[in-house]
Every structure is written in C-alpha cells, then in structure tokens.
Amino acid sequence: MSEAKKEITIYYCGHEECASGHFFGPAIRPHYLMHFILKGKGHYRVNGKKLFVQTGEAFLIQPEEITYYKADEEEPWEYVWMAFDGARAEQILQKCHIQGDKLVCTWRGSGKTEEYIRTMGERFESGEYSQNELLGFFYLIMAAVEKNQRNTHIDANEGYDRSYLKKALSYIRHNYSYDIRVSDIAKYVGIERTYLYKIFMKYQQVSPKQYLTDYRIRAAKDMLTNTRLRVTEIGLSCGFHDSSVFCKNFIKIEHKTPLQYRKNIT
C-alpha cells in the first residue's frame, strides 16, 4: 500500500527544550505537524495571525503553509512534535475541531496523555519502534485532544451541538429501516452516547432512542396509509425486525394496533 493511501502514517517525531527566543521559519512543511507544549510558552504565526501557545496546548502546522514559531524569551517552551499525514488525517483533525483558523488546541486533561506524548518522542528518537507502536500513541493522544476540545469549546458554543444534532437526524432519516441502535448513531456523529442524549433532550425533548422509535412509527403510518403492504412487511421496512415489537411500539404511541389504524383511515 502506498503512503498516500494509508489511513495515517507517522513520518517523524522529536523532543526539544528550546532556548530563550529560539525560532523556526518562515518555512513550509510537506505534512501535518503538531507541537505539544509540555512546559513554557511561545507564539506561532500563520496566515498573518499571531497565536500564543502555552503549557498543555498544541499547535498545528498544515501542509504547504508558510509558518513561523518562536519560544518565549522568559519562559521558553519545551515540546514534542510529530509529523503525520494520510487518508484519515483531515477527518481526525475535524473531530478534534482543529481546522480553518482554529489551529491551537488543548491536550492536557489526563496524566497519561503527557506520558504518551513523551514516550512517543523518545521511542522515535531511539530508533527502536514500529509504525504500529507510533500509531497507537498517535490515536491515544488525538483522542485526548478530541475530548478536551469538546469539553472546552462545544459546551460554550451551541453551533457544535446543532451540527451534531443535524448529523444524527440525517443518519436516522437515511438508516431507520435498518437495525440501527443509539450506539450506531453516536459512533457516526463522533460523540459519546451520553453527550448525544443531552443534545436530543435539549433540542428534541426526547431521548435518541425515543426519537428513533417515533420516526419509525411515523414512517409506518405513512406506509399503512399509502401502500397495500402487509403489517409484517411494513414493520420490517421500518426497522422493526419483530412483529410483536412493532405492534407494541405502535400501540404505545397511537393507542391502537396497526390494523386498527389502517381501518380508521380507509
């Protein structure tokens, strides 16, 4: 498999304790490059903007962009950096809400995250590593970034919540006829089940499970009204793979059986 087709490839990593005022650039990098600040602070310039970065944060350099970064004079930073790319790189960064002009993120939140970052840099520099080992550390680190970004930014910005809700509703609309569960919806959206539940209760006033059931019953009512399909066939078409479960849910919502509903409209 060529490098370009791999999901993620780690090209190199490193660790550096910078001297006061140490800088790099202006320069262009061929891959994504992230610096994780372990201690100290500095600034990062990209696209005419000056971004300040400190302990517990990281900054992303995107491929083919001219960048410049410099350690603080009084509290120079110590960081571990990693260069990566691949078919899933953009998707992973989007899940971490690192995109566009949002190129600084928070990674600190768990004591183990710093351990993963340091160990990844040390293993690469030792030369005694495998790509799978580096990928393991990469995914653990990016999972921590995703969690911290969600906790730091999403709660304060309803735009993310509405975006997640829109994605969840679209998934239900296109997949309700299959044997999907709430865990499948949460996985598709890219958030935890508990967080998905909070979003649905906030904007739909029902749980994701109840919304999915209600949607299936609405679709079943439409089929009972506009088709000559049998009740069993309609239940299967709407994601109920057991006729008794279909009838039970239909009665709970409509207070009548599917057959009674059809008779009342004919």
Describe this structure in words.
The protein is an alpha+beta fold and 266 residues long. The chain folds into 2 domains: 3-154, Sandwich (Jelly Rolls); 157-266, Arc Repressor Mutant, subunit A, CATH 1.10.10. The protein has 10 helices and 9 strands. The protein has helices at residues 89-95, 111-126, 131-154, 158-175, 182-189, 193-203, 208-226, 231-237, 243-254, 258-264, and strands spanning 9-17, 23-28, 32-39, 41-46, 49-54, 57-61, 66-71, 78-85, 104-106. The strands form 2 sheets. A 5-stranded antiparallel β-sheet has the order 1-8-3-6-9, with helices on one face. Strands 2-7-4-5 form a 4-stranded antiparallel β-sheet, with no helix packed on it. The longest helix has 24 residues, at 131-154. The mean pLDDT is 90.
Q: Secondary-structure blueprint of this entry?
A:
Elements: E1 9-17, E2 23-28, E3 32-39, E4 41-46, E5 49-54, E6 57-61, E7 66-71, E8 78-85, H1 89-95, E9 104-106, H2 111-126, H3 131-154, H4 158-175, H5 182-189, H6 193-203, H7 208-226, H8 231-237, H9 243-254, H10 258-264
Antiparallel strand pairs: 1-8, 2-7, 3-6, 3-8, 4-5, 4-7, 6-9
Helix pairs in contact: 2-3, 4-5, 4-6, 7-10
Summarize the structure.
The protein is built from 10 helices and 9 strands. By secondary structure, the chain is an alpha+beta fold.
